[in-house]
Amino acid sequence: MKKKIYDIIPPQKQPQRFIPERVISVKEEKEEKAEMESKKGVVIAETERKETTKVKGENFPKAKKPLGRRIAAFLILVLIGVGVYWFFSSASAITIELAPAAELFSLEASVALATSTSEFMLPAELSQTVIPVELIEIEKEFNKEFPANPVSVEEKARGIIRVYNKHIRNISLVENTRFLSSSEPTRQFHAETKIVVPMGGYVDIPVIASEAGEDYNIEPCVFSVPGLRNFSPPQLYYDIYGKSFSKMEGGRKETIFKVTKESLDNAQKELLAVARREIESILQKEAGDDYKILGDSIELELIEGNPLNVQEGQEIDKFVYHIAVKAKALMAKKDNLLEFGRAYLSANMPGNKELVDKSLDPVFLSESGGILTGLEAKLKVSAQIYSIIDEESLREIVKGRNRSEIARYTMGICPELVKQPKVIFNPFWARKASLNLNANQVEISVIFK
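Now predict its structure.
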């Protein structure tokens, strides 16, 4: 067989790679890669050129520091500044609070009273002091509930019996004639009056039981007259008899509560005692805080006293008793008493002690004499006192010292303190007291409970 001869060699079949929408030959793929490598090299070269240019001195923006670092640096500078200011700062004013130990100091004094004047003057000789007084008068009512008195009660039953007479003549029955009931058990009653029962007729008579108690409250029944057994003729016992048509009532034997005269008298006495105990505080309230009542000068008068809505003899468990009283007394101005008390204590207390003015308390004393006689009274004056504080020394030791040093030196000057002194700087952040403080810039505050 003859072979065919081609003057042009036909192209060999190239392998192909499938890509969606088009088919790319292996040769085209190689060409694309080569082109990409070429572009990449150009980019790298350009980048290196720029970096080389920057290194040689071309201007470019610097990277910014983080915001947090800048804030931290600012705060550190502020703290350093505050610390330096605090270290060198000093207080321009100081307060020292002291709580000294205090004790009660009391004295009694006799004072003269005067109703003729309202002017008060404190003489040099305190024993000659005269306290002006005024009269106060009020009316007051008191009510209180009281228990009634227990009373043992024994009462006999009563009733009406109709007495019949079937005899041939009139029959007379004496007072206390006995009647025996036909009920079981038999109960005996007595006629309360003398009676005459007409022949062939009858008469109603009141009767009372022989004994007290509820057992005699019997129902209607027939009664015989046992005393007629001893009379002649024997038929008389059967011809005279009685009959009741209603129940006997009122018989009882028990303990009850009753408003007696004794219970009313006791109620009045007790209520008057209550009035006497309370009247001073009532007068004091009426006088007001500016006055003091003289307890011994109080006079109490009973205007009326009676039970409310009950009567003597009434059976009831409790009752309310009412009284109205008139009270009058003398009163003195509290300021006058305080002025006298302050002067009297100051003149008699130790020289190294100071008076707590707010604790001053003058009180009129009650004496065994009862109502005040004459124009004199005893006055008890009490107050808290404490050791005098050397304020001048305290104002000197504070200069240039810190709080702890001031507190320590204060305890040395004032050893009788119940607790550590409190030192307050102005401004509060100051580290120590100024060296140039004057007396007006150091306040000494004394505090008591």
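The chain has a mean pLDDT of 84.
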